[in-house]
Amino acid sequence: MSAQHRHGPASTNPDRLPSRRGFLRDAGLGLGGVALSAILKRDLFAAASSPPDGRPHFAPKAKSVIWLFMIGGASHVESFDPKPALNEYAGKTFAETPYGGVLESPFLANERVVAFDPNNGFVRKTCYPLQVGFQPRGESGLEISDWWPHLAESVDDLCLIRSMWTEDSNHGAQLQFHTGRHRIDGFFPTIGSWVHYGLGTLNENLPEFVVLGTPLADCCGGQEAHRANYLGPRYDGIPLQVDPANSMPYLAPEKGVYVEEQRQQFELLDRLNQITADEHPDDEAIRARMRSYELAFRMQMAVPEIVDLDRETAQTRAMYGLDADETRTFGQQMLAARRLVERGVRFVQVYHGSNGGAGGWDSHSNLKNSHTKLCGQVDQPIGALLKDLKQRGLLDETLVVWATEFGRTPGSQNGNGRDHHPYGFTIWMAGGGIKGGIAHGATDELGFHAVENRHYVTDVHATVLHQLGLDPHRLVVPGRQRLQRDFGTPIHEIIA
Known about the structure:
- It is a single chain.
- This protein is α/β, with parallel strands linked by helices.
- It folds into two domains: 15-44 and 251-306; 58-83 and 132-242 and 312-474 and 482-494, 3-Layer(aba) Sandwich (Alkaline Phosphatase, subunit A), CATH 3.40.720.
- The chain is 32% helix and 14% strand.
- The chain contains 14 helices and 17 strands.
- Strands 1, 6, 7, 8, 9, 10, 13, 14 and 17 form a nine-stranded mixed β-sheet that branches.
- The longest helix has 25 residues, at 367-391.
- The protein starts with 19 loop residues before the first helix and ends in a 9-residue tail after the last helix.
C-alpha cells in the first residue's frame, strides 16, 4: 500500500474507540493548528456581516491574482524607473541641482536630507549615481535595468506604474500597502481578504486565498498583511509550504491512521452532525461545521498534489530555476503559484525578502551587492511565471502584481546605499486585462516625487478588484466607516 494511503498500522484497540462527544472533539482537533484554522475560517466563523453572494458585480476580466511582494523597499531607480540625471549630478548636493529648494522642504524631514558624517559632522546628502545599467527592451522599448534580464523578456506584457506614493516613511508601509491604512489607524482587511470576501470559490477542494513564502516580520505588520480583521477570520490567507509531505501543518491524518479509516470517521461524523442538525434545523453553525469537515478531507487529497512539483517536466522545473541554489526557493513558489491559479485559487500572495526585520530589500548600504543578489533570486522565477502563464493561455485571466512598500531615495546613505523613499516609486502589473508594454505615471528627473498620474496604494487595490469584477463601494460592511481614499480609484488608463 502506498504511503499516501497508509500512515501506519490500523489499530483495533478498543481504548481508541471514542465516545460520541469525544469523537466530535477529537475529529476536530485531529485536523490541528493551521489546517483546522483553514477549514473553520471558510465556513464556521461568521463575518461581521452577511458576506456578498460570491458573484462579480460586473463582467470580470480576470479570475485570479498572483501578488508578489518584495519586503524592505526595492530601489525603483535601479529597476524600472531609470534616472540618468543621478549620474549627471552624482556627488553634488541637492542644492546644486534644479530641485534643491524642493528637496529641502520641511515636508521631507523624515527623508534625512542632512546626514551625519563622522569626519565632517552634519553634511548635506549628495546624489548617488545609478548602480546598474538600463536597456530598452522588447517592441515597446521600455527601459528595465540589467538586474532583470529574464523579466525583461516579457516587457511587452508589463505595465509599469512609476508614480506610486504612500504615507509611511518607515516599514509600517509594508502593512499599509496591503491594507491601505497607516499602522496607527489599527488593523484592516487586506487586498487578498477583500477578494476572498467578494468572490466565490473556483475550486471547492482548495482555499480561496493562499500565502506562500515567509510573511512580514512583527515589526512591520506580521501576518496582519494577509488577514481579514473585521471581515472575520474565515477570509484570512492560508499559509502553504511547497512541500508535498508537509504542505499544511497537521493537514495529513494523524500518525497511525489509514486514509480509509479517516474517510469512515468523516462519514460517521457527518451522520452524527446530521442528527444534531435535524434536532436544531436553524443552527447554521452546525451545517457550516459539516461543510468544514468535508472540505478538510478534500484538502488532504488536493493540496499535497499541487505542491508536488516533481509532477512537472524537467524542462519546466529548469525554466523556473529549480536546478540552481540561487533561484530554487523562489522558483518553487512561483511554480506552485501557477499550479494554484491553474486549479482555481483566487488570490496567491507571495512574499520575498523576509529576514526577521525590515526585509532584505532594505538597502541602506551595499545596495549594489544586495540588489544584485536579491534580483538574482527572483528574476528568473518571475520571468518564467509570466512566460508559463502566457504559453498556457492563463495570463489573460491571471493578474500578476509586483510590488514593494516604497522605493529608495536618490541621495546616498552610508556611502553606498539609499534611504526609504515613499514619495514616488514603481510597481508593475501584467495580464488580467491590463495593457502591456506601457509605462504609466512618472517621477521627476531624480526619481524623487511622483509628478504625473500619482497613485496611492488603494488605487492598486481598486484596479485589482475592478479586473475581478468587484466594486469596493459595494463591499462595505455596515458599521465600518471608511474614508473615500480607502476605496481607491481604478487606474482606467492601464486597463485594456
